[in-house]
Amino acid sequence: MYINNSNITLPEDPNTIVWKYLDLSKFLDMLLSRQLFMSRSDKFEDQYEGTFSEPTFEEIKKIAANNPKFLDYYKSHREKVVISSWHINEYESFAMWQIFTQNTEGLAIQTTIGKLKEALYPEKKVEQYIGEVKYIDYKKEYIPFDDTFFPFLFKRKSFQYEREVRIISDVTSNNLKIDNGLKIDVDLSLLIEKIYIHPKSENWYKNLVIELVKKLGYDITIEKSDLESDILI
């Protein structure tokens, strides 16, 4: 179950398709633990993650002139926010396969916004929010800072291809020490609608994934990527 926040926007249609591209080891860890890994926000490759655009930062600096702790809070806050990223797309994305799977042994989880919401259990430790990322010009556009989640729902325009939806949790009030991330309980039978195997993978690999999923007690539809269909000529 996710917590609704009227300031956080999402596509209205619950049947909007979303994807998560990952390697086999992370996928198996998810199945074995029955949990979803959320990465600490300052561990992402994008160094701007959870930071502010220039117009917003100028405003924050004025406030911080009389209250230095105000700026320190935003700097340290990134260590207390964890994120699980998903990609909105009706179809598979060739770019996502290339960027988020390191070799031909990658997988893609397909689900919907509605199922993503339903699959989250109420967490005793942390609350979860789901929001769509907005892509802006960090030199010109303003990011509101009246909500501590806002910096994590904006990215630079150069990342527009990600079309990202995020599950976000803030563990500040829970006194949790986060190293690389945090695992949260999820209903995987609800979460995973279908699994797609990397388009460049061999048939033996697809059969291995099918066997592993079955032995772990899951009934999940597994398909070879549509990007590797037979050429008609």
Plain-language structure description:
The protein is an alpha+beta fold. It has one domain. The mean pLDDT is 86. This is DUF2971 domain-containing protein.
Helix-strand layout with pairing:
Blueprint: E1 17-23, H1 24-33, E2 35-40, H2 54-64, H3 68-77, E3 81-88, H4 94-100, E4 106-112, H5 113-119, E5 129-132, E6 134-136, E7 154-156, E8 164-170, E9 181-185, H6 188-191, E10 194-197, H7 203-215, E11 222-224
Parallel strand pairs: 6-7, 10-11
Antiparallel strand pairs: 1-3, 1-4, 2-3, 2-9, 3-8, 4-10, 5-8
Helix pairs in contact: 2-3
Labels describing this entry:
233 residues, alpha+beta, nine-stranded mixed sheet, two-stranded parallel ribbon, 7 helices, 27% helix
Q: Quick check: average pLDDT?
A: 86
Kindly report how far apart the N and C termini lie. Answer: 48 Å
Q: Structural class from helices and strands?
A: alpha+beta
- Work out the number of β strands: 11
Largest sheet: 9 strands, mixed
Unreliable stretches: none
Order of helices and strands: EHEHHEHEHEEEEEHEHE
Radius of gyration from CA coordinates: 19 Å
Helix content: 25-40%
Tally of structural domains: 1
Number of discrete helical segments: 7
Strand-residue fraction?
A: 15-25%
- Categorize the overall geometry: globular
Would you summarize the structure shown here?
Helices cover 27% and strands 24% of the residues. The protein is an alpha+beta fold and 233 residues long. The strands form two sheets. Strands 1, 2, 3, 4, 5, 8, 9, 10 and 11 form a nine-stranded mixed sheet that branches. A two-stranded parallel ribbon has the order 6-7.
